[in-house]
Amino acid sequence: MKVADVGRLAETGKDQEESVTSSSDTLLGDLWADLKSNTSLHGLSRISTKKTVFHGVFWGAMTLFMVLLLIGAFVAYGLDYFSYETLINIKLTRQAEMTFPSVTICNVSPINISRVNQSEILNMYYLKTHIYGRFFHSFINISDPFYAVLHENRTDSWLNETKFSKEMLFYHKEFEGQPCSNCFEDRRTDIGMCTTFNGLSNNPPLVSKLIGSQNGLSIFVFLDQNNYIYGENLGAGLLVAIHERDEEPNMADNSFLVSAGTVTYVPFRRIDSTFLPYPYKAFGDDYCTETSAPDFQNPLKHYKQYSSYACIRECRARFIYKRCQCRHINDFGNETICTIAQEHTCVRKAKEKFDSSLSIKNNCKCPLSCHQVAYDLDFSSAKIPSTKYEEYFSTQNLQDLSTNHIELRFFYHTFFVENVQQVPKIDLTSVLGNVGGYMGIFLGASLLTLMELLEVFMVAMFLISKRLIRKVKGNVISSEKNSRFPDPKT
C-alpha cells in the first residue's frame, strides 16, 4: 500500500470518530431539549437564553437552589427515619369473655417451723439474723456446736417438707361459684414454696365469663401464725402476684401484701402492650425480643416459657454458685444445695451483690419480651369479723379470725382491654407522602417526575457508554493501523 493511501485511511478513521462524537452530542442535546420542553418539573423549561442571559441565569440559579433545598430536606428526613423514633397508640377493645390470669400466693412466713428438725434452734437463728433481731442480739457464731443443724445437708424435698400446705392454707376455694380444689399447684418462687391458681398445668386455662366480685376466684385462708418463723417481714398475711400463666412471678419485689384479719377484694383489668423489635427501642435504650416468633429459641434451662425475670433468676443462680459453690434452696438445678450456714456466710452477700448491681444484671442478657401483659389492680379491704359475726363465731370456738384468717376475692371489674401499641413514627405511607410533598413544594414535581428523570438518566448513560465504547474501539483500531502502517513522515 502506498504512503498516501495510509494517510487517507488514518484521516478516514479520525473523521468517523468525530462523526460518532458529534452524533452522540447531538442526541444528548436533543434529550436535554426534550426534557426541558416536556417535563413536569417546574423551572427547568425556563432555563434558556433566548430571551435574555439574565433570564436564563436567574431561573437556572433558582432551580439549583430549590434542588439543594430538596436535597437538604431529604437528608433531614432520612436522618429522622433512621433514628427509628416511635409513637404509642392506645385503644380499648371489649371482650365477650377473658382468660383468667394466674394468681400466685405465698404465706408471709416461707417456712412452717413445726415441720423443721430442731425447730427451736432454727427459730432462734432466724430471730438473731433477720431484720430487727439484728439490733437486739449480738453476733451469731454459726460454728458453735449449738447451731450444728445449720450445717446439715438439704435436698430439694426440704421445701415441700417445710411449707405451709395448700390444703391447710386454703380451706375454702371456688371459681365463679363452683368448687375448684384442683385449680391450685405448688410453685417454687424466689422466696420459697408458694401456691399458684390457674397455672400452666391447669389446661385448658380457666375463663371468666362475667365480671364482678361473685364471678371470680374466692378463697378463705388460714395463716397459722403459731408456726411462723422470724422472717424479714414483721407482719402476718399473704404475698400475692397476679401475672400471665407463662410468666415467672417476682414475689420478692413485684407482689402486694394482704393483711391478716381482713376481707380483701382485688378487682383488676387487663393491659396488653406490644412493642417493636430491633432496630426500634422499646424500653428507653433497651430493645425487646419477639419471644413468640417461630425462630425464637428459649435459652433457659429450667423454664419451659421464656420471661425476663425467669432469665434473671437463672442468671442469679449461676452467680451465686460461682461465688459460693452451692445452689440456693429456692433455685432450680442439679448442683449441691447450700446449707443454712452457707446461706448465712456466702449466699446472702452474693445475692445482695447481684440485686444491687445493674451492670451484673445487664451482663445476664435477659431482654424483655415485645409482648407484655399487665393487670391494673384496685384494692379494698375491711377488718374481720364484724361484731355480728364475732358473736356467732364465739359460739363455734373460732376466736382467731382477726389474726389468722383472710377472705380474698379476685375478679375482672371490666372486660375492656387497654391495648398499648408501639408504632413507627415514620412508616411507608408517611415516606411516600412526605417525599411527594417535598418534591411538590420545592420543584412542583411528583413521583411520575422521578420516572421521567430516571428515564432521561438511563438514556443519557446509554448514549455516553455507547460513545465511550466506540471511542475505545476507534483508539484500538487506530493503534493497530499505526503499528502496521507507520507514519510516512517518520
Low-confidence residue ranges:
1-10
Number of domains: 3
Q: Decide which structural class fits the backbone.
A: alpha+beta
Gross morphology is: elongated
CATH architecture of the largest domain: Sandwich
Largest sheet: 9 strands, mixed
CATH superfamily caption of the largest domain: Acid-sensing ion channels like domains
CATH class of the largest domain: Mainly Beta
In short:
By secondary structure, the protein is of the alpha+beta class. The chain contains 13 helices and 16 strands.
What does this structure look like?
- With 490 residues, the chain is an alpha+beta fold.
- The protein has three domains: 3-82 and 429-444 and 460-484, no CATH class; 90-117 and 152-279 and 372-424, Acid-sensing ion channels like domains (Acid-sensing ion channels like fold); 290-366, Orthogonal Bundle (Helix Hairpins), CATH 1.10.287.
- The protein is built from 13 helices and 16 strands.
- Strands 1, 4, 5, 9, 12, 13, 14, 15 and 16 form a nine-stranded mixed sheet that branches. Strands 6-7-3-10-11 form a five-stranded antiparallel sheet, with no helix packed on it.
- A hairpin with a 2-residue loop joins strand 6 and strand 7 (192-197).
- Residues 1-10 have low confidence and may be disordered.
